[in-house]
Amino acid sequence: MRDRTVVHMDINHCYAQIEEVRRPELRRRAMAVGGDASRRHGIILAKNDAAAAAGVKTGETLREAVRKCPGLLILPPDYDEYMRLTEYVREIYADWSEYVEPYGLDEAWIDVTALYDSAGSAVKAAEAVMWRIEQETGLTVSAGISWNKVFAKLGSDMAGARQIVTIGRDHFRELVWPRPVRELMHVGPAAAGKLQLMGVHTIGDLAMYPETALREVFGLPGEIMRTAARGDDPGRVAAYGYRKPQAALGMTVTMMRDADSFTDLSAVFCIVAEQLSARLRQMGLECRVIAAALRTNDLKWQTVQRKLPVPTDLGEELWRESMSLLKEKYTLAKPLRAAGLTLTELRPADRDRQISLFTDENRRDRLRSLEKACDDIRERFGAGMVRRGCTLMDTELADPVYTAEHIPGPAGSFGGRKSVTDGSV
Q1: Is-above-0.85 flag for pTM?
Q2: pLDDT tens-digit profile of 268-318?
Q3: 314: alpha, beta or left, given left = phi > 0 and alpha = psi -120 to 50?
Q4: Pick from 250, 248, 256, 249: which is nearest to 404 by CA?
Q5: Which residue of the set 20, 60, 107, 371 is catalytic?
Q6: The CATH fold of domain 248-403
Q7: Known catalytic residue: 107?
Q8: CATH topology classification for 6-11+82-229
C-alpha cells in the first residue's frame, strides 16, 4: 500500500514574527513577546532571532530572559491579531488540501497524498505554499514532510525559516534515531527525564527499547512513544474544519500574591469554577470528574482529583466539590503561586442519566437558572459585575482573576493537543 504524504508547517517564532511584520524595525533588536510581570505572568511566549542568539528561550521567566539579555524588549501579546493572521494562513493551507489539522495557532498538518505521486513533487508544492504565505502575510514558515504526522512535525522542528526537511523511509534511521529523545512528539519533559534514567537518550534508543519494559513504567503511553519512534504512528490528518469532541476543559491562574490558606483558595476557585461552568453551559456539556492543580512558590505542581456524585455544569457544585477535595487531599505546607481546575469525562448536558435519591433536582434547576442569568450579566457588563461574597473578602486575590483575560480552554492531553492557559509560570 502506498505511503501517505504528510506535510507539517510551522510559523517561525509566531508571536514574535507577527510583531516584526507589524513593526519591521524590531528585527534589528532583541525582542520577545511575554506575559505581564506585574501580574506575575512572567513567561516568554515567543522570541525573535536576535533574542534567541542571546540565549533567550521560550517558556523561561522574564527575569531569566532579561538576565541573559539586559536590553531585551518585551511586548505584551495581542491575541486578536495573532488569531486573525494564523487563521488566514490556515485558509491558505485549505486551498491546498481538504485535510488540514491545526496544532495550536502556529502549526498544522496537511495531508497531500492524493495530490502528488512523490515526496519530491510535494516539496515543490510546499515551497510554493510557503512563498504564497510570505507574500500575503509577511510570515516565514518551515516545513517537514514524511509518511506520518510525528516525523513530519519533527522535520519542521529541524528545518529553519523557509526550509523543508524530508524524512523518508529510506533514511529515517540515520536522520531521526540519533536525535535526543526529548525532541520526539509524545515525549514530554517528565517522560524524557524518566527515559534518561532508564538509559534511553536518543529516539533510536527508544525505538529499540523492549515494549514490555516501557509499558511497565509508562503504561499505554510507553507503547505509543515507542511506536512513534519507529515511524509507525497511525494518526490521520483530520479534514479541515473538523473538531474533535471536547475531552477536557481547564483553567489555571497565577495569583497576585501567594495563597497560604483555604480561605484564600476558596475565593480563587470560586471564580475559576464560575468561568468553567459558564463555558460548559455555552458548549452544552457537563462534567463528571474534577482535578485541582496547585503550584507552590517553589514552582512544583501537584494534582488531586475526584469523581462527582452526578455530572454537573453548575459553578456552585464545582466550587464546593473542589474545596472539599482540597481540604481532604491537600495540606498547605507551602504557599501557592498558581491554582486551577480541569474538568474531564465531559458529556452532553441533555443526555439521559440516573437521578440520585440524594440530590435535590428542583434546587439544581433553580440554581442553573440563576447561574445562566449571572452569565448574561457578566457577558454584557463584565466578569466582576455579579460575584459571591467570598470574593469580596480579599480583593487583592480575587479582583485580578476577575479582570484578567483568562480563557478556559482544552486541557493538555497525551495526544499532544496544545493547551490554552494563562501563560503563568
Answers
A1: no
A2: 898 899 999 999 998 899 999 999 988 888 878 888 899 998 999 999 999
A3: beta
A4: 256
A5: 107
A6: Dna Ligase; domain 1 (3.30.1490)
A7: yes
A8: Alpha-Beta Plaits (3.30.70)
